[in-house]
């Protein structure tokens, strides 16, 4: 590999960091049931401990995303406990995820609920989450809404849009200057007729209406089959409205599979759009890369390490694209050359350079192997197996 390409890979790895979700270490399942894993985390401390292991072997996951209801059971008073866990396990609290979908009161929605008291309750939860984020020095408050309806005629779609505009604006007003509100979209599930924030356009509209600190959060699993996600990314970049990602892979719906396990080229194309934007504008895109996975059969810590190392590889491959040559080929409508520039970068084996970079940072060359040989998994399996055999904890 040419020295310039090796350098591009090195530079890309220097900048690439990815956040891991606390809920990715806990037992999860499908709506048909749960298969419990003996080593699954059940407490916030266990999640921090597992996340610390991922960061120890990869060196690129300094933050852990927290879900307020699952990780901060005492609300704002949890901040002290979490700060202690940060010090103990060497990972910091990252994005703070509101939970406006699990409590019984949200049966008919949160910000879109016809009951003003429930809308107010949802707003208060958001304000509390903002305060928790402030205490934990977390910049991003991420919001996903299950709001929607299951049958035509059962919800006033335009009225609910207004309620969403109002509540998000009020939420935005409560942000501190350094914070951001990231608004996630999803076309279906759990609602199967209409979802209030179903796509990136709705999320962008609501974010723009809310205020300048609100941006769109793209969860790669939240699209219809074969939707062109990188085009959405390109448009959001162009509008300066891309706030972050929830990465995962999928084959059919929101499958939450390991990143790149089904379609690594898709993730490469997303990274390419971002790096091409940065090359063109000369500005760093301010994007939070986060993982949102909770596959229920594979070992959770190992699966997370797989995702992190895959993300690094795909980001490094995207950094190899010769942007000047691509721009030239596009201008000349040289289709074969333009397409080949992408394919050549994607097909380059970047693993040797990534290993070199790891060595230069004092990190293990093979994070997964190092983790598997560390004895950590055997230890937590012993410690947690008995409890996990009868606790049917959900995400939390
Ligand atoms: C919903 O499917 C989602 O992607 C949201 O980000 C939630 O916060 C997360 O998954 C966990 O359920
Ligand atoms: Mn998500």
User: How would you describe the shape?
Assistant: globular
Question: Spans of 5+ residues with little confidence (pLDDT < 50)?
Answer: none
Give the strand line-up of the largest sheet. 1-4-5-6-8-10-11-12
Helix and strand run: HEEEHEHHEHEEHEEHEHEHEHHHHHH
N/C terminus separation = 46 Å
Identify the bound ligands: alpha-D-psicofuranose, manganese (II) ion
Largest sheet descriptor: 8 strands, parallel
Task: List the total number of helices.
Answer: 15
Rg result:
21 Å
Mean pLDDT: 96
The amount of helix comes to 40-55%
Number of strand elements: 12
Based on secondary structure, the structural category is alpha/beta
**Strand share of the residues?**
5-15%
Short key terms for the protein model shown above:
binds manganese (II) ion, 12 strands, two-stranded antiparallel sheet, alpha/beta, 396 residues, binds alpha-D-psicofuranose, 8-stranded parallel β-sheet
Summarize this entry quickly:
The protein has helices at 3-15, 44-58, 68-71, 78-89, 116-135, 157-173, 200-210, 229-238, 264-281, 300-319, 323-331, 335-347, 351-360, 367-373, 376-390, and strands at residues 20-21, 29-30, 33-34, 63-67, 92-97, 140-143, 148-149, 180-184, 194-195, 214-219, 242-247, 288-291. The protein is of the alpha/beta class. Helix 8 links the parallel strand 10 (214-219) and strand 11 (242-247).
């Amino acid at each position: 590999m040419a020295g310039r390409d090796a350098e591009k890979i090195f530079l890309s790895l220097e900048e690439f960091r990815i956040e891991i979700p606390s809920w990715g270490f806990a037992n999860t399942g499908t709506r048909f049931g749960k298969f419990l894993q003996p080593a699954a985390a059940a407490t916030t401390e266990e999640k921090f401990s597992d996340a610390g292991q991922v960061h120890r072997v990869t060196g690129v996951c300094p933050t852990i995303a927290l879900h307020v209801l699952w990780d901060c059971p005492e609300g704002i008073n949890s901040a002290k406990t979490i700060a202690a866990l940060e010090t103990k396990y060497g990972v910091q609290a990252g994005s703070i995820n509101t939970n406006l979908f699990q409590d019984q009161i949200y049966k008919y929605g949160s910000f879109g609920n016809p009951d003003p008291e429930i809308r107010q309750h949802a707003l208060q939860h958001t304000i509390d989450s903002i305060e928790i984020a402030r205490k934990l020095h977390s910049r991003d408050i991420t919001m996903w809404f299950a709001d929607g309806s299951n049958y035509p005629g059962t919800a006033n779609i335009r009225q609910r849009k207004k309620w969403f505009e109002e509540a998000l604006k009020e939420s935005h007003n409560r942000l501190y200057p350094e914070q951001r509100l990231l608004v996630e979209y999803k076309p279906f599930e759990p609602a199967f007729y209409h979802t209030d924030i179903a796509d990136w356009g709705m999320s962008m509209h609501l974010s723009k209406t809310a205020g300048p600190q609100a941006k769109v959060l793209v969860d790669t699993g939240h699209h219809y089959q074969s939707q062109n996600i990188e085009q959405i990314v390109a448009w959001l970049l162009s509008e300066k409205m891309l706030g972050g990602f929830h990465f995962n892979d999928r084959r059919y719906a929101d499958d939450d599979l390991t990143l790149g396990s089904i379609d690594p080229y898709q993730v490469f194309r997303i990274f390419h759009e971002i790096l091409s934007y940065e090359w063109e504008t000369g500005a760093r895109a301010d994007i939070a890369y986060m993982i949102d996975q909770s596959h229920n059969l594979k070992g959770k810590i190992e699966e997370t390490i797989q995702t992190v190392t895959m993300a690094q590889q795909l980001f490094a491959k995207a950094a190899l694209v010769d942007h000047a040559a691509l721009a030239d080929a596009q201008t000349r409508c040289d289709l074969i050359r333009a397409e080949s520039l992408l394919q050549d970068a994607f097909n380059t084996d970047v693993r040797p350079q990534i290993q070199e970079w790891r060595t230069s940072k004092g990190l293990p060359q093979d994070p997964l192997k190092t983790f598997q040989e560390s004895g950590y998994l055997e230890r937590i399996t012993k410690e947690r197996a008995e409890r996990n055999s009868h606790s049917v904890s959900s995400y939390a």
